[in-house]
């Protein structure tokens, strides 16, 4: 299938209008498969952000007052538009982010379902009536928190915005959402589907610009009542600090460095196949990527052999070409990070089993890379790689493997492979992470809560908890006599 390389010009969307803003500034957007500029994304200036916050304030009044069914109808219609346009949205996502087309298409289809899920879930945002013996009737009322400032990174160009917009809109909130300047056109297409579905003006405002300027202005703005952030731990701490200074609730979905413990009784070939699949999705640029493989010594060599075979079987190239199943890294920062992490690990004694270098001179490709006997002192064992390098280590004692798995400041995802129910329980109880998977490395789902512990953040996205993140609870006591 031949895909067009035409790139739709991204714009800001403020108070129901598509605009280039008033700052007069913009920045280039690149195709990671070529490293060449494909367009410019306009920057919102102070006035544009002020207008966006005002629009979100006015939009909130309209949207939160609407019947939950009426809101749901618009969200379901937006889901349908996204699905009708999925091919085009995925094409644009591949063009600006790099992931291969089928992966981008899967992301669009899955994440659009989040709108449908929350359109229904919002109908079950019940308060409670609480028995009391003090002559009052006690109850709770749940309401949307208000206009939200949301910050979304570049690794899931369609899924990222929808993970925040779906529960928030269903709850009755409005948004000023800053999506990544590196993947702006996909976000525009998602917002266009909401607009076409009949979302009232001002309910979603989409902005791009200089990230620290935007977050500083919006978080301090009194019209904004909540902050939702996905991104790196250092930026998350900065944003959480800014929100704390004005006492605004936050959801922090930050990075991870997910351990995979492959126990003595696991099938090493199957565990390696599933691990490698999870590891190389989106060229390893997923916050829940399995990233540290801790394998029982009796299975180690067979696991490594199968993992290397799976890595070498990947066809790395331009994600819009047929047959490609791993695209480039999304930006040159990741390429540099891979080169640095690899050089450091090799210098400290790790063994290179396959890969290990940039692929070609055009674009930001890096070979699927497998390292063994990586010492714990290597930076890659502590720093989230966010790229296609898989460090593998061996263990003999499960308690020691658990201690190693828990030995970073991160606590987002963790994985285990075992055929024994008691061992699976031990892993589930012992791993310090918010998202646990046994015998697979599948990703997040919208019907269940996801979120980190330790420095990977707090708050939940997904499931009923994801809806509650965007709601406040009021206690009402009503004296009866
Ligand atoms: P980064 O930390 O500079 O940026 C991450 C995201 O935060 C980007 O979308 C950026 O636009 C935004 N951002 C940066 N500073 C901001 C600010 N002051 N206010 C508001 N938004 C701000 O890093 P990067 O180079 O884009 O990515 C590198 C690292 O970020 C990765 O190694 C990974 O650890 C992490 N990351 C995590 C996720 C995730 O899903 N949790 C996604 C992308 C990146």
Distance between the termini: 74 Å
Provide the β-strand percentage band.
15-25%
Shape: globular
- Summed over residues and divided by their number, the pLDDT gives a mean of 97
Using the coordinates above, name the CATH class of the largest domain.
Alpha Beta
Class computed from helices, strands and strand pairing:
alpha/beta
| CATH superfamily label of the largest domain | Aldehyde Dehydrogenase, Chain A, domain 1
Query: Which fold name corresponds to the CATH topology of the largest domain?
Result: Aldehyde Dehydrogenase, Chain A, domain 1
In which order are the strands of the major sheet placed? 14-15-16-13-12-17-18
How many helices? 14
Number of domains: 2
Helix coverage percent: 25-40%
Observed structural traits:
Aldehyde Dehydrogenase, Chain A, domain 2; 2 domains; Aldehyde Dehydrogenase, Chain A, domain 1; 481 residues; 7-stranded mixed β-sheet; 6-stranded mixed β-sheet; alpha/beta; binds nicotinamide-adenine-dinucleotide
Short description:
The chain is α/β, with parallel strands linked by helices.
Fold blueprint:
Blueprint: E1 12-14, E2 17-19, E3 26-31, E4 36-42, H1 46-65, H2 68-84, H3 86-97, H4 101-121, E5 129-130, E6 136-144, E7 148-151, H5 159-171, E8 175-178, H6 184-196, E9 204-207, H7 211-220, E10 226-230, H8 233-245, E11 250-253, E12 258-262, H9 268-280, E13 290-296, H10 300-312, H11 332-347, E14 351-354, E15 369-372, E16 389-395, H12 398-405, E17 413-417, H13 421-430, E18 435-438, E19 457-458, H14 463-468, E20 471-479
The structure holds nicotinamide-adenine-dinucleotide (NAD).
């Amino acid at each position: 299938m031949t895909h067009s390389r035409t790139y739709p010009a991204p714009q800001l969307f403020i108070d129901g209008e598509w605009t280039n803003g008033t700052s007069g500034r913009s920045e280039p957007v690149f195709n990671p498969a070529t490293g060449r500029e494909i367009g410019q994304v306009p920057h919102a200036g102070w006035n544009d952000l002020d207008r966006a916050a005002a629009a979100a304030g006015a939009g909130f009044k309209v949207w939160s007052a609407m019947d939950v069914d009426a809101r749901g109808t618009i969200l379901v219609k937006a889901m349908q538009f996204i699905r009708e346009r999925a091919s085009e949205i995925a094409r644009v996502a591949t063009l600006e982010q790099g992931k291969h087309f089928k992966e981008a298409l899967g992301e669009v289809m899955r994440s659009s379902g989040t709108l449908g899920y929350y359109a229904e879930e919002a109908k079950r945002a019940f308060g409670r009536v609480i028995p009391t013996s003090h002559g009052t009737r006690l109850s709770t009322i749940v309401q949307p928190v208000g206009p939200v400032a949301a910050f979304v990174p570049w690794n899931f160009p369609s899924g990222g915005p929808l993970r925040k917009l779906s529960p928030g809109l269903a709850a009755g909130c409005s948004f000023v959402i800053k999506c990544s300047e590196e993947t702006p056109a996909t976000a525009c297409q998602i917002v266009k589907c909401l607009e076409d579905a009949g979302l009232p003006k001002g309910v979603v405002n989409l902005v791009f610009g200089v990230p620290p300027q935007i977050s500083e202005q919006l978080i301090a703005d009194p019209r904004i009542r909540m902050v939702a952030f996905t991104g790196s731990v250092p930026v998350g701490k900065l944003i959480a600090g800014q929100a704390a200074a004005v006492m605004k609730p936050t959801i922090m979905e930050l990075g991870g460095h997910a351990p995979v413990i492959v126990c003595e009784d696991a099938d090493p070939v199957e565990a390696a196949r599933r691990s490698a699949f999870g590891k190389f999705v989106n060229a390893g640029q997923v916050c829940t990527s399995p990233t540290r493989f801790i394998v029982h010594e009796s299975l180690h060599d067979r696991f490594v052999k199968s993992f290397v075979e799976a890595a070498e079987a990947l066809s790395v190239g331009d994600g819009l070409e047929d047959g490609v199943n791993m695209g480039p890294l999304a930006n040159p920062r990741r390429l540099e990070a891979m080169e640095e992490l690899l050089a450091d690990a090799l210098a400290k004694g790790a063994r290179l089993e396959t890969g290990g270098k940039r692929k070609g001179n055009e674009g930001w490709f890096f070979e699927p890379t497998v390292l063994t006997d990586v010492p714990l002192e290597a930076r890659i064992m502590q720093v989230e790689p966010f790229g296609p390098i898989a460090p593998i280590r061996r263990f003999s004692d499960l308690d020691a493997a658990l201690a190693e798995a828990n030995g970073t400041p991160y606590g987002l995802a963790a994985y285990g492979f075992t055929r024994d129910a008691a061992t699976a329980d031990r892993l589930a109880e012992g791993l310090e992470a918010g998202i646990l998977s046994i015998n697979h490395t599948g990703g997040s789902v919208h019907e269940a809560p996801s979120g980190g512990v330790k420095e990977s953040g707090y708050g939940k996205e997904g499931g009923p908890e994801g809806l509650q993140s965007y709601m406040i609870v009021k206690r009402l006591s009503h004296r009866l006599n």
